[in-house]
Amino acid sequence: MRSRPSALRDFTVDRRTWFLSAVSIAIGAGGAALAVLLLRAIGLATNIFFYHRMSLAMVGPAGSNQPHATVFFIPVIGGILVGLIARYGSDKIRGHGIPEAIEAILLRGARVEPRVAVLKPISAAIAIGSGGPFGAEGPIIMTGGAFGSLIAQWLRLSDAERTTLLVAGAAAGMSATFATPIAAILIAVELLLFEWRPRSLIPVAVASVTAGALRIWWLGAGPLFPVDLPRDFHPGMSLLIAVPLGIVVGLAAAGLSRLMYGLEDAFEHFCGRAHIHWMWWPAIGGIGIGIGGYFFPRGLGVGYDNIAELLRGNAPVTLLLGLIIAKSLMWAFSLSSGTSGGVLAPLLMIGAAIGESAAHLAHLPGPTQALWALLGMGAMLSGALGVPLTAMLFSLELTHALPAILPLVLACIASYLVTALIMPRSILTEKLSRRGYHLSREYGVDPLELVTASEVMTEIPAGDEIKVGKSGHLPESYVFSDETCRAVAEEMATSGLMNLLVVDRTTNRLLGSVGAAELLAGRRRAVRRESERSIAFQIGYTKP
C-alpha cells in the first residue's frame, strides 16, 4: 500500500532541514561579515566625501564642518556614481532593498545575480556616504539575501530551498547590523518567507543566531540604543497615551508612504517629459539632499546618533522639527529618485521624533520623553511596514526597555490598525504593486486543510464497494479517504488528473471519487463562515 505520512502530519518537514540548517551556519557567518563590511564601507565613503581622509571610522556627515556650499555638490556626485553603477552594472541595485528581495523570491525563483551581491553594497555605501538620508538595513538585507541565494544556486537546491537560504542571509544581515536576532527572524516571516513552516523557519533562525553571535565578537553586544526607564516605572499612565500616540503615528506612516510615492510619480512624469534618462535621477535626488543638508546638516547620512539622542529623552525642539520636516522631505525625495538606500532607520527616527514631540507638548520630563520616543519608533515601524510583531520585538531588542512592553504593544497595534484600514499596501509592497504584482499579507490555514476527501467525495452506492490493488499497492490515480483536500489538490496538480478515486487506507476498498468541483467544498465552507459573520453584524443574527 502506498504510504503518505506527510498528509497526516502537523508539519511538512524532512531530514533536508538538517542539511539546510548546517548550510545556514555558513550563511549566517557570511551575512554577518557582509554587514560589517557594508558598515565599514559606509564609514569609508563618509570619511572620503566629507572629511577627505581614508578611514573606516563610523562618523556622521554633520560633524565634518564642510563649507556650506560644498554640501550642495557632494550628494549630487554620489547620485551620479550610483546612477552609473545602475546603468552599466545592474539596475537591480536601485531601491530600498527589501522590495527587491521580495521580488526575487516571488518572481525569480529566489535567484539573485552575483553582480548584485557586489554592486548593491557598493552603491549603498556611496549613496549613504555622500549624505543620503537612508538606512543601511535594506541594502544589507538584500546583500545578505544575495549571498544566501548564490550559495543555494551553487548547491543546485530547489526553488523552496533557495528561498529559505536567501531569507536566511537576509535575516543574518539584519541580526548583525542591529543586534536583534529575534526581530530578524520575525521580519523574515512577516515580509519575506510568506509561510511559517519548520523547514524554513529553523534554518533562518540558525543563520540569525550565528550572525548575532559573531556581531558581539566583531561590533560588540547590544543594545544599540539603550533606554533607561525609572526604577519605579509603572506602565499605568503610559497605557492611556499609547493608543492615541499609535493612531497619530499610523497616520504619519500613511502620509510618508503617499509622500514618497507621490514624489516618485512626479519624478517619472517630469523626467519622462524632459527625456532625462533614469541614470541621472539619483543625481537630481542628490540636489534635494544637498538643499536639505544645507539647512539641516543632521538630516544627512544614516543618523544613528539622532536615534540615540531621541531615546535619551533630551532632544532639542530644533532637532525634533528638523527630523519630522526636513528629514522626511529629504528622505522621500531622494529615495523616490531610484537611488540605493533603506527605509528602516529613517522611519525609526521620524517615529521617535513624533513621539518625543508629543511629550514636549505635554511638558513631560526626560525619562518620559524617552518612553514616548520609543513608542513612536515602534509604532512607525509597525504601521509603515505592516509588521507589528517585528516592530514590538525590534524596539525591545534595540533598547532593552522591557518594562515598556505593554504600552509598546498597544502603540504598535494601534498604528497597524490605522494603516491596515487606510492603506491598501505597505510602503514596501506598494513598489511591487506598481510593477504589476499584488501581494496578499494575510496568513491563515488553507480551508482545504480542514476538509478530508471522504467528506466531499461522490460515494459509490452501498454494496458496490470493491477491494482494489494487489499486495497493498495502489495505482497513482488513487487518494486515501483521510487525506485533506489540499493533499488531493496537490496530487491533481502533480498527476494532471482532474478526477481521482478515493480508497480507504486500512481496507483498500474503493469508496468513491473526487474531482475539482468537490474540492471547492472547503472554499465554500470558508465563504459561508464569513458570510454568516457578516449577517450577524448586519442584522444582529446569532446562531442558536
From TrEMBL:
The chain crosses the membrane at residues 20-49, 69-86, 165-189, 201-225, 237-256, 276-296, 317-335, 341-359, 371-394, 400-423. The keyword Transmembrane helix applies. The keyword Transmembrane applies. GO terms for molecular function: chloride channel activity. Keywords: Chloride, Chloride channel, Ion channel, Ion transport, Membrane, Transmembrane, Transmembrane helix, Transport. It is a multi-pass membrane protein. Gene3D superfamilies: Clc chloride channel. GO terms for cellular component: chloride channel complex. It is found in: Membrane. It comes from the Bacteria. InterPro entries: Cl-channel_core (IPR014743), ClC (IPR001807), ClC-type_chloride_channel (IPR050368). This is Chloride channel protein. It comes from Telmatobacter sp. DSM 110680.
